[in-house]
Amino acid sequence: MAERAAGRMEILVLNEIARAGLARLPAERYSVVKEARSPDAILVRSRDLHKFDFGASVKAVGRAGAGVNNIPVAALTQRGVPVFNAPGGNANAVKELVLAGMLIAARNLIPALDFVRGLSGAGAELDKKVEDGKKAFAGRELKGRTLGVIGLGKVGSLVADAAIRLGMEVIGFDPEITVDAAWSLPSQVRRALSVGEVLKASDFVSLHVPLVEKTRGLIGAHNFAQLPRGAVVLNFSRDGVVDERALADALAGGALKCYVTDFPSAAVAGREGVVALPHLGASTEEAEENCAVMVVDQLREFLEHGNVRNAVNFPDAAMERESRDRLAIAHANVPDMLARISHALGGRRVNIHNMLNKSKGDTAYTLLDVDGEVPEAALAELRGIEGVRAVRYLTA
Looking only at Cα atoms, what is the longest distance across the chain? Predict the structure, then answer.
């Protein structure tokens, strides 16, 4: 059965999503609900969906943020369900918090604030206590210091640019930097060839990598030993990127002056030398609106036209609509798949007007604009092809 673009689709919202984003779902086409048995798509922020019961009706999941650790991406991929996110939507908010973290650490602001809170007295007595105590909190300026940035995506590039504007030297490393990220990186950033090269040269190190298997424990005992004594590490990436046992040893031994993190845990919260924030990176009105608008627009484009942009598990694939009838097919990236799809349609006398095929790892996605209606028998045959994960028939 065809999905008609004019039909009303049900969007299940599992967290509070900024109104600016939800307002981009026209009421005549979408029903936005907090409970649903058969939603067409799901919008989420932080809710853990690893044990969520995804019904057969779910065609897409949108995460109003960058990280997707709370979503079972691999399982949804095998079902042919794209998982959209909003890369860069909260980048400025995170950048500003990183700058705040550097200043907090460089100027010893947390112990200084605690000192002032503990003062008593008034007048000359209080003034004397302030003057006698302030020397214990003398800090250092950022200008002229070196910032190492590990991970040069949108956030890392913005942090690098801001640090340069503050007069810092910047050295960066990212083995998987994209072409777009490379273009947006300030020319003054010195490119390192390894994590170790960054650590050895840096007074401050800011982490901006996703948490995947190869980045888990990226900064461990060996890495802390490479830092200049008195360095500061800032982790606004993910908690698992830093080995917390090695971190504790580095702090206890004085190798590390301060660890600023947005991910408090029992191992680090309350420990001397740790500034732990309650996951505030994207917690600004502007960031929440940016992420909501971005992911809703992507979700609509997929639901209405089958186009894919910024899906973590699908290739980017967008094609201008040239006919009323469109097929969107998610399938395994294997040889002869396009031939089998074409054969199934040709055998039912369905002419392909235009086609786009893209792949990402073991996943591929094909858009086909066809001349005339696609019979149910052809759709059934397409769904029966080994390796085909999902078939959507869109009619405008």
Answer: 95
